[in-house]
Amino acid sequence: MDQKQSFTDVLIVGAGAAGTMAAACAAAYGLNARIIDKRPQKLAAGHGDGLHARMMEILDTFGLADAVLQHGNEFTMTHSWVQGSDGRVTRQAASSRTWEPPSPFTSVGLTQAKMAHILLDYVRQHSDIEVERGLMTESISVQQGSEYPVRVTVRNISTNGGMASFTADNDIRVDNDEELLATTGRPGVQDEIIKARYVVACDGAHSWIRRNLQIPMIGDDMDVIWGVMDIHPLTDFPSARTNSIIQGRGTGLMWIARERGMIRVYTVVGSAKSNEHGKFIQSSVTPDTILAAAQKMLHPYTLTYKKCEWWAAYRVGQRVATHNTHESDRIFLAGDAVHTHSPQAGQGLNVSMADTYNLLWKINLVVKGLAKPDLLETYHSERLVLGQQLVDFDRQWAAIISGNEPPKPPPGIKTFRVTWESIITHKFVPLIHGLQVIYPPSSITLSSPDTIEAASSVMDQGKLPSGITVGMRMPSYQVRKHADAAIEYLGKSFRSDGRFRFVVFAGDVSDSAHLERLRALAKWIRTLMEQYSLPGCQADSTFDNILVHTTSSLTVDLLDLPDIFHPFHPELGYNYDKVFYDEDITNRFGHRIGSAYEKYGVDRHKGRLALLRPDGYVAHQGGLEEFDPVEKYFKGFLIPRK
Ligand SMILES: Cc1cc2nc3c(=O)[nH]c(=O)nc-3n(C[C@H](O)[C@H](O)[C@H](O)COP(=O)(O)OP(=O)(O)OC[C@H]3O[C@@H](n4cnc5c(N)ncnc54)[C@H](O)[C@@H]3O)c2cc1C
User: Which ranges carry the Phenol hydroxylase-like C-terminal dimerisation domain (predicted)?
Assistant: First the structure.
């Protein structure tokens, strides 16, 4: 047998939503990583189709939000419809931008395939990581004590053109491994042993790695079979270019207005239990079955199509894995490998990508020797509970959308209560948009049970807490750039570069007392930067510093401010992108912008120091002269430079 052996710091298995985000992070941080996928070809169409506000914010920190907006369709309106006893649908509520979350972004409809292309283009531009397609895992084991303890054997199955039998418009069969193997490659040819420090299993709902590690999934299947299709509609439905939710009796339909004039329709096509025609079989579903079910739900309006880009039928399994981390602390599961749920709330893509966005910065710091391996334990404590909450939310959401009563939540799981009324009044908006995430107190998040309690009670009302909340993502408000007075969202400067970020609200820096306070703070930050910089790297390799003051840029010169806020590059000169000021102004469209201090809840005289984790979540906030908690924080999990 022809077997080669190779080594990598991080092996990502699966190039779906979670895997491509993991690869983008690895590229951004300069990690030594590989990504493999059993599919010999990249995804062509279909699957997940919506990115929500938090994910758009994250993509913006990679500089990718514009590309998504260019190719996608921004969701601006959602209409709610109800089917009457005469079978006719009537519109109950139409929301104009009311699903708009407190974020610079709202949701964008875009096929997962295009999303993956955008991320993988980024990966190619920033690293030499390429998806290695047609590589399927065959065995996995851990040898503790070794430098590269995880040993994964992979088989190359891309050696013939058998995949051509999997058409792009319904590629669901590709998840059937036996069929995949029967139509591709010769068994055993070009097997490879990959030895890795860490493995990130992003291998989807039927995760081979999860099954091999014997990590159980808890939950069950929904009774209904859903059909989904991406079509160019020929229709007189009045809400054709907005999203719609139609509730029927024991059934439902979701209509998503997509890019290029396309729509996605999800509709119930049958019950998975026996009915009067015998057991409904998922594989008997065709595009015609889905269209017929949709036509019935849209009465008296009509729907046909000539062009279908993708379709699928599925029975939803609502399950969560008992663990997302293997006992060796070397293998992590992410995305659908940990939580499966219905696609109707559009969470699959978003939560899966958010999993690896949470994990990769931690792996990066550990692999580079800057953080203690304990840091990785927080992946379990932060992400698994979110998976559980997501599945519970989905049970309610999917039941309501399919015209049924929502089930009661399992004891001990705190989730938002979904009702048809809450859908119409948009109370779930922060949750849908991924903005409600609040990480529990831990070595990397100095939140307190009181903060969490207070924030949760606000979020129960469908709102987000105002200001900065430790444990939540740092909100993004408009400020002006000191160097050129350009109006920008502050969140744009929270780049995904693997660094912690001090956001300093310094007040009026033309006031000598405020300026002195800022200088003392900057001096202290400088010592931290030196203490924790990466071996062989610049002093700013671990920390980035952003300043927001309240003084007009004409009063104070940028270069008179501490140099950590305008680092100098020998070839590129000064960096002018880190200092902002808050000004309450009205823009040329008559919109009031600014007042960032007010929105962040920061006192203009006292100022505030916010410490952000590399994923943009607030780790701590405190006074500008309170150094102790921050020093203790870093001592807790970082390893100082010798
Ligand atoms: C048919 C279908 C329709 C869907 N429709 C929607 C939708 O309409 N809306 C929505 O929000 N979500 C939808 N989803 C869900 C959404 O796509 C997922 O939630 C999301 O993609 C999960 O990301 P992931 O990276 O965890 O898994 P996936 O995106 O499924 O990626 C897993 C990857 O791992 C690879 N892989 C699997 N096993 C191995 C192995 N042994 N070795 C190497 N590679 C392997 C697979 O080829 C695949 O590329 C759909 C999913 C499917 C399968």
Answer: 438-641
Q: Per residue in 391-439, pLDDT tens?
A: 888 887 777 776 666 666 666 555 556 666 666 566 667 777 888 899 9
Pair 628, 543 in one domain? yes
Same domain, 379 and 501: no
* Structural domain includes residue 433: no
CA distances to 39, 79, 156 from 192, rounded to whole Å, are: 17, 52, 8
Identity (one letter) of the amino acid at 604?
R
Number of domains in the chain: 3
d(Cα 439, Cα 627) in Å, to the nearest integer?
23
Q: Is residue 118 included in any domain, yes or no?
A: yes
Asked if residue 599 belongs to a domain, the reply is yes
pLDDT of residue 46: 76
Alpha helices in 318-432 (DSSP H): 348-367, 377-379, 385-401, 420-424, 429-432
For residue 20, how far is its CA from the centre of ligand 1 (angstroms)? 11
Q: Please name the residues in contact with 496: beta carbons below 8 A apart, sequence gap of 6 or more.
A: 24, 25, 28, 58, 61, 62, 357, 614, 615
Q: Find the helix packing angle between 348-367 and 385-401, rounded to 10°.
A: 170
Secondary structure of residue 445 in the 3-state scheme? strand
Residue to substitute in 20, 38, 47 for testing ligand 1 pocket (most ligand atoms within 8 angstroms of CB): 47
Distance (Å) of CA 238 to CA 81, 261, 300:
11, 14, 11
Q: How far is CA 529 from the centre of its chain?
A: 29
| d(C-alpha 18, C-alpha 55), whole Å | 12
d(CA 4, CA 174): 27
Instruction: Give per-residue pLDDT as tens, 357-381.
Output: 999 999 999 999 999 999 999 999 9
Specify whether 195 is located in the same domain as 328: yes
**Same domain for 26 and 80?**
no
578 and 617 in a single domain? The answer is yes
Cα 128 off chain centre by: 23
Half-sphere exposure (CA, 13 Å, Cβ side) for 353?
27
Report whether pLDDT(277) > 70. Answer: no
Residues 377 and 358: their CA atoms lie apart, in Å, by: 12
Alpha-carbon span 483 to 508, nearest angstrom: 16
In a domain, 552, yes or no: yes
| CATH number, domain with residue 153 | 3.50.50.60
The pLDDT value given to residue 106: 85
533-577 residue pLDDT tens: 877 777 788 999 999 999 987 789 999 999 999 999 999 999 999
228 lines ligand 1 (CB under 6 A): yes
The protein residue with its alpha carbon nearest to ligand 1, atom 12, reads 48
Q: Ligand 1 pocket, 371 CB below 6 A?
A: no
CATH of residue 282: 3.30.9.10
Domain with 289 in it: 75-105+220-316
Ligand 1 centroid vs 299 CA: distance in angstroms? 33
Whether residue 617 sits in one domain with residue 589 = yes
- Does the beta carbon of 137 lie inside 6 Å of ligand 1? yes
Residue-wise pLDDT tens digits, 319-340 = 999 999 999 999 999 999 999 8
